[in-house]
Amino acid sequence: MNSDTQKGFRVEDLKAYFGKVEALHGISMAIPFQQVTAIIGPSGCGKSTFVRCLNRMHEVTPETKVTGVCLWQGWDLYGPAVDPVEVRRRIGMVFQKANPFPMMSIYDNVVAGLKLMGVRNKQKLAQTAEQSLLRAALWDEVKDKLGQPGTSLSGGQQQRLCIARALAVEPEVLLLDEPTSALDPIAARKVEELIYDLKQSYTIVIVTHNMQQAARVSDRTAFFLLGELIEYDKTALIFTNPREKRTEDYITGRFG
Amino acid sequence: MQWHFDDELKRLKEMILRMGAMVEEQIANSVKALVERDVDLARQTIANDHRVNAMDVEIDETCIRLLALYQPAARDLRFITTAMKITTDLERMSDLSEDISERAIELAGEPPLKPYIDLPRMAGHAQRMVKEALDAFVNQDAQLARRVCGDDQMIDDLTDQIFRELLSYMMADPATVTRAIRLSFIAKYLERIGDHATNVAEMVVYLVEGKLIRHTQA
């Protein structure tokens, strides 16, 4: 296996459809292993659709279709024998709105995925819960109230709880779809710091409307527009000297 | 879509041009004061330096405010950081004009050493470099900016020539040493002005192309 070309995501001519409407017009890009890649672009540009293709979440919506190639570490995610559930375990996702399971305690939220996978060993569950909450930088705030409902936490804590829940099943990738857009600046900063720490061990793809956030947390930035990948480069380059005028117009706020 | 940030950037550009015009005038007046032995003009040039300083501070404050409030990116970011660096160079040029004026006052109190030919020529080159560097800035003209960088060699050559000539005066007659040293200082000041103009031109290349060319042969 050639480690350079096999590492991370390799996407080729990826097209996504809603019914007959083509939402992504043939995206090709390589997303590097254990780095943070930000996807930016105006509403409706296909950035959420794109990340949802990366863990086969797009097809969860009825009447949808995906064509093209999407490899993770050389593994064809759309191969005939591939179980989408396994894809989603290895490639986790956190959404814009924190969505802890409403009837569950903090603890049960974190271990829900493990239990679903059939893990029953109480010690293993407790260990994973603690580790995941530690990694999500939430442990100190919740360790004395693990039995309380997940929904009793603040918005920022709930979002980190969702990240802990995603981490508990030991994924290799975290897809974050506007993870801080519903959070206040302090909670958002905590999540950003978390992203920064997590890239030591995970490959992260973050969709964000907040350009400063993309600039702060990511190594590479991709600019999407109307279902196309317009420009994709090192973040520092995109934000100081983009090649494409459309990118420049968007990041300098002169779009439209 | 009209955006008031664009108006802010336009105002910033106008401030830099105003400061540039002031500095060009400072250089011209300091050399005129030297050549025409005009002590009043030299004093006035020294007194005017504070106006340039005030402009420098005003532009810096504007840039910091724009960075803080708008968090600009790409071309806007390069424009504002370039503005901050350009004004530092312009301010230093005005300081050097002040130094030339001080030497001009001293020299006016002594008999003329020789007719001034090369120094005004140097000053003319330096002024043109400043003007063209600012034109390049206004028109975002990287080609003109690169030419300005190349012109610096001319000033460096003239500096060497003036040093050699003054040295010959000093060797021939020790009574000329004080004046010759003062004049060689002035040559050095003009040479420095050329260097600052080059810095401005290099920043213009960065502004336009996003490429840092200083400390390289580019």
Query: How would you classify the quaternary structure?
Result: heterodimer
Q: So what's the overall shape of chain B?
A: elongated
Largest sheet of chain A: 6 strands, mixed
Strand residue content of chain B: under 5%
Span from first to last CA of chain B? 38 Å
Distance between the termini of chain A: 45 Å
Which stretches of chain A are poorly predicted, pLDDT < 50 over at least 5 residues?
none
Q: Order of strands across the biggest sheet of chain A?
A: 6-7-8-3-9-10
Helix count of chain A?
A: 11
Q: Give the helix level of chain B as a range of percent.
A: over 70%
CA gyration radius of chain B, whole angstroms:
19 Å
**Shape annotation of chain A:** globular
The biggest chain-chain interface is: A-B, 14 and 13 residues
Folded structure, characterized:
The complex is a heterodimer of chains A (256) and B (218). Chain A has 256 residues and is of the alpha/beta class. In chain A, 38% of the residues lie in helices and 25% in strands. Chain A contains eleven helices and ten strands. In chain A, strands 6-7-8-3-9-10 form a six-stranded mixed β-sheet, with helices on both faces. A four-stranded antiparallel β-sheet of chain A has the order 2-1-4-5, with helices on one face. The termini of chain A are far apart. Chain B is an all-alpha fold. Chain B has six helices and no strands. Chain B has helices at residues 4-35, 39-70, 74-108, 118-139, 142-172, 177-209. Chain B is elongated and about 65 Å long. The relative contact order of chain B is 0.14. The model of chain B has no long low-confidence stretch (mean pLDDT 94). Chains A and B meet through helix 9 and helix 11 of A and helix 3 of B.
